[in-house]
Amino acid sequence: MKHTKIIDLINSTNFLHEVKAKGWVRTFRNNQFIALNDGSTIKNIQCVVDFENLPADLLKKIHTGAAISVTGTLVESKGAGQNVEIQVNNLEVLGEANPDEYPIQPKKHSLEFLREQAHLRVRTNAFGAIMRVRSVLSYAVHKYFQDKGFVYFNAPIITGSDAEGAGEMFRVTSLPLDNLPKKEDGSIDFSEDFFGKTTNLTVSGQLEAEAYAMALGQVYTFGPTFRAENSNTSRHLAEFWMIEPEVAFNNLDDNMDLAEDFIKYVIKYVLEKCEDDLQFLEERLLSEEKNKPQAERSDMSLLQKLNFVLENNFKRVSYTEAIDILKGCKPNKNKKFKYLINEWGADLQSEHERFLVEKHFKCPVILFDYPADIKAFYMRMNEDGKTVRAMDILFPGIGEIVGGSQREERYDKLVERMEAMGVDQEELWWYLETRKFGTATHSGFGLGFERLVLFVTGMTNIRDVIPFPRTPQNAEF
Ligand code: ATP
Ligand code: MG
Ligand code: MG
Ligand code: MG
Predict the structure, then answer these.
(1) What CATH number has the domain bearing residue 102?
(2) What is the spatial distance between Cα 85 and Cα 7, in angstroms, rounded to a whole number?
(3) How many domains would you assign to the chain?
(4) Which of 17, 44, 100, 338 is most buried, taking the most CB atoms under 10 A from its CB?
(5) Confidence band, pLDDT 50/70/90 cuts, at residue 376
(6) 226 and 77 share a domain?
């Protein structure tokens, strides 16, 4: 007999016939009940087992974490919190989990502890819920763009260019590290490399996406990107997934419309499809909030926050207006910024971004028209010659979630910017050709997928929303 997924059993009303279920023991109690989970849902199915009549050698193998198979009758349950249960008449232990060694026990583990158990933490309710939500969000990303006729394309992972010019790249080489070929001047001779030049792991698929938008009109990438940034924050990973749409004939306003519509769509989708998991995460957060001092408690629950984003327009504010607000505000003693902003032209730190979103506007904010000097070379220069058509979307609890822009489509202006910013034109000869031949207005953005998952799940550390986080000094798993 083939086993049935637990989610299907829980939703079944076809009682009083024999079923088989396989999964992992979550808890067992009163010498009678086993809560079994197979990952198909946050809910466990209750298995009613006559422990007293189990052979002793079988009984001692039943522990939290053990993989078991049960066969029995599906019946309506009288117990609170569940509709069905299995009256078990046969139980088999498939894989034991010695409680003296198995780290995941039925109690609340700290997130720090679980980070050291990246291969096992997905067996907890919280991580099961987060990873199912992440999966549904991925699907929603594709669904949104596919339904709108965007072409999904795969940007290369190994590239020769540094799209952001931030110098945060991981080198890729096939050369033997213990015997690097050297040129006469002592530098490494990459011409002997498999790729014949210096190559890196991509920091963004944007430049390639632009080339593709110049033929396919609307494209998007959704793939891994890599940044060797030595920043140990709760918002940065060395390996993260980025969603990057790029659209021909779209200007900055169109770009903002697209980003806002897209974010609202995926949040709405996940609210509909992940009800149980989000309900669990909501309750998890509410119980954490209770332990905080009143002043630090959030004024909205997770579900309220998600619905708030759906129901309200993102506030669109120019960088210049934002600086005026930040300059004019006199934060009280406790809330003083570490970095005070006095000057137009300074880059915003995440504390400023969060101040604008959480304290001032109290809603998601789209900041636009940033000073050219603090943004990448490919953004379109405004008529003032000082600002570029950049936009960042800022979210409560997160800060920057999206970075985007209208691109500089004019060949001469682009060359001018590359020169001014010291960007290698020879290396980007192909990118310049996209402006030489059939250039057109276009825009796009990059949304860090994990920052979106952070917001949707209410988690606070980006290490907890990706299966195996890559951060400085951490690639054990
Ligand atoms: P930040 O200011 O937070 O360092 P950024 O401006 O360097 O971000 P962009 O180059 O604009 O980032 O990348 C686009 C998006 O990718 C960001 O808005 C963010 O959502 C996400 N992102 C950037 N760097 C990281 C990272 N190290 N880990 C996770 N997500 C990231
Ligand atoms: Mg950065
Ligand atoms: Mg930034
Ligand atoms: Mg950015």
Answers:
(1) 2.40.50.140
(2) 12
(3) 2
(4) 44
(5) very high
(6) no
